[in-house]
Amino acid sequence: MKNIPQARVESSFEENSEDNRFIHWILSNGKNLLIAFFGLVALFFIVYRVLFGSIVKSEHDFITAENDYQRLLTEKNQVAIKETVQKLEINLKTHPELHAKYDALIARRLIATGNIQEAAPFALNAISRTESENAPLYSDYSKTSLLIAESHLEQALQNSLKLKETLNAKDTDELLFALNLLRIGMLQQQLKLEKDELSTWNEWGNKIANKNNEAFQKLVDYSIIGQISLTNYIETRKENLRKS
Q1: d(CA 218, CA 211)
Q2: Residue 46 neighbours by CB distance under 10 Å
Q3: pTM over 0.85
Q4: Rounded to whole angstroms, what are the CA distances from 104 to 26, 30, 109, 128?
Q5: Which CATH architecture has domain 136-244?
Q6: What's the distance, CA 50 to chain centroid?
Q7: Crossing angle of helices 21-74/78-94, nearest 10°?
Q8: How would you write the pLDDT of the chain (244 residues) with one tens digit per residue?
Q9: Domain limits of the chain?
Q10: SS3 sequence, the chain?
């Protein structure tokens, strides 16, 4: 094979490529392109590592929150309960999206273990979300539940009576009306307001007599106080109140 003179090769290359500006640009900027390429690759790995690390951290936090909550469900020692709640609070601050899942659950568990004051912030958070979902009357009912848990029975009764007036005016949510009326009677019993309690149970009886009040019927069917049905309990209370 004959050797082709170097000058001829260069001349031929220039003749063939002089109309191709892109190739000339590549040849003249090849070093810069290489540097830019590796810079982009490095940037890609940095971004990937940061994002992937964030995802892994979030998943770890979610698992930790669930484990802490499960521990709270079984823990009976008061000191351990408070320590577990503190861990959950740290996680909830880091991930506010977890509030929707855990606030009401934590509040219920704390109330069940007698930690009413500690339960209040979680319960109020859950109630606030209910208000934002256009259910203010149920929020009022829930706030009164918290008052009862804190033994503020007089205020709870006043709130319940006010809610009853609102529900009467709206004439909409029959189930909430039934639950609230039952609560009023129970609170009046606790506060020894015998005449008011009897009046409430008479109103309850009139509602039950009306077969169109399905919510009252369902509440009676599924409610048991101690070992007796709700109907028997209320009838016994009415009889005792009439005798007193």
Answers
A1: 11
A2: 10
A3: no
A4: 63, 62, 9, 11
A5: Alpha Horseshoe (1.25)
A6: 29
A7: 160
A8: 445 454 444 444 455 544 556 556 555 665 565 566 656 656 655 554 544 444 556 677 778 888 888 998 888 899 999 999 999 999 888 888 888 888 888 888 888 888 888 888 888 887 777 665 547 888 888 888 888 888 899 999 999 999 999 988 876 778 889 889 999 999 999 999 999 999 999 999 988 888 777 778 877 776 766 667 888 889 999 999 998 7
A9: 54-134, 136-244
A10: CCCCCHHHHHHHHHHHHCCCHHHHHHHHHHHHHHHHHHHHHHHHHHHHHHHHHHHHHHHHHHHHHHHHHHHHHHCCCHHHHHHHHHHHHHHHHHCHHHHHHHHHHHHHHHHHCCCHHHHHHHHHHHHHHHHHCCCHHHHHHHHHHHHHHCCCHHHHHHHHHHHHHHHHHHCCCHHHHHHHHHHHHHHHHHCCCHHHHHHHHHHHHHHHHCCCCHHHHHHHHHCEECCEEHHHHHHHHHHHHHHC
Token code pair at residue 52: 């992937």
